[in-house]
Amino acid sequence: MRFVTTRGGQPVSFREAALIGLAPDGGLYVPETIEPWSADELSRLSNRTLTEIGYRALRPYTRGELDATLFEALVVDALNFPIPLVEVEPRVYALELFHGPTLAFKDVGARLMARLMASLDKDERDLTVLAATSGDTGSAVAHAFHGVPHTRVVVLYPDGRVSPTQEAQLTMFNAEAGNVRAYAVAGSFDDCHRLTRETFGDDALSRAARLTSANSVNVGRLLPQMVYYFHAVAQLGPVGGDLLMCTPSGNFGNLTAGLMAKRAGLPVSRFVAATNVNDVVPEYLERGVFAPRPSVATIANAMDVGHPSNFDRMLWLYGNGVDAMRRDVIGCRFADDDVRQTIRRVYEERGYLLDPHSAIAYMGLKSVLQSNQPGVFLATAHPAKFREIVEPVIHKTIETPGPLAEALAGPLHILRIDASLDAVSRAIDV
User: Fold this and answer.
1) Distance between CA atoms of 181 and 184, rounded to whole angstroms?
2) 20 to 30 A Cα–Cα from 348, which one of 27, 271, 323, 339?
3) What's the CATH number where 360 sits?
């Protein structure tokens, strides 16, 4: 399998694409082809375990580069937690992606990515993994790479724009003399994302630090997210009606992975791209014009993205055709008041507790779902990660899961930097 860029760059191997991260031409790596699942494979989905599905979904992209036995062991080690499908109400299901070590969906991509990189990288020099985060990416990447030999991790997050729980998880390794550091940047997520692009764009800096990305711009983190879409269908089994799926969207890597899964044969009729007020993609689907703008802070902070980088991959998938994209994707957006009201109502009426991002996914699904049509929405984070928002809404205390209790137990070690390339250069120590 070869990988090309969204800007037409030269094909490279999966190893090169994953270790480089952002392509030299500024584009994003995408697989040259998306291998389809056979009808027989799809019919037997319900008989497959999560790790078996993970192996099948990702093997086409690693074949010829990783031994099959090694790759299978890697998948089993990474996906060592459940991803259950829970019925919230008749024909409406939550795919709970928050049972990993950092209680967020990004554990799936980050854990698989870390193990892939460790297996593929043969260079003895340290690899510096640079990631910008609007909330959950950074902690997932930090945990996934913590202690991995010959790697260093530098995470940039917007100072004052992540939840206290997220910040505790992001910074919990700062007190160690280890391989992971998280820095609070004086700016927004868009500033953090800009800084990673500027750093990768500086040839001398990139070579000196041997940089790669751990954001979903890296195809090694994006492709693993295809796995849980197939796993959702496997758990759902045969259903009457066309299946609809809703993905809460910020940087749009999660949705892009779903669209690639659909291209590979995932039996879903359409996707709903549900955003908060940072709605540049729903706006594109309505008007046919992509107009990035500065992000606006909301209570669903992981989705506060004004210029989603994975939109380039979405355009590539649909040949830059808005009408083609509209056939597969429906856009919608919701404000903070809608989120709070939905969290309260679903908890009171259904006994199911949503975090702000999952609430947006639930609303997006319900806004489009037809009578008797089955639907799945992605529940991307544990509500306890956003207790300062959720608890006042439901007027109850949320029990703290073990991983969060561990992160919150110690003092915060916050490292602050300004939003400049010089500051990032000093942080990665070159």
Assistant:
1) 10
2) 271
3) 3.40.50.1100
